[in-house]
Structure of UPF0301 protein GCM10010909_23300:
Amino acid sequence: MGEPDWLTGQLLIAMPSMQDPRFVQSVIFVCAHTAEGAMGVMLNRPVKAPGFAALLAQLGVEPVPPKREIRVGSGGPVEDSRGFVLHSPDWVTEGSMAVDGDYVLTANLEVLQALAEGGGPSQARLLLGYAGWDEGQLDEEIRQNSWLSVPADEALVYDTAYLTKWQRALAKLRIDPGMLSHEAGRA
């Protein structure tokens, strides 16, 4: 599978055989993949509440209502009360983590303040929580045919067509979900 960070900046697509109900038909943007483990955020799980304005009010970030609205999604089951903004690289602050040349992850109030004021990065997703894997765990799950990977693109990362994101991610690989087996195996 190459170097330990080969999945950084890629999308993980859950196989139909995914047994963990938290990840069934999920699409995950991998923010970091190292020898110590991996971290990513789910892109196709919207959150009905709290909305962006309600979240800003809870955090004391002004103005409420915000001058700019962004959708809030579930980034994963780990630390689901912690917010992460996955965004374009045209705006960064101290503590922002460049994933690659196209995506940045920021987890502080400064990015929320900038967005509320109508500024900040041109493209952004606010995600609550994240998906995490211990050392070698994600690599093993890939060997067990739990995940496929594909390069990320702006449409899959930033659009809000959540119900079709899994199918569209598979389509990037020219895979029809109906043709995938629910059984894993090795040739």
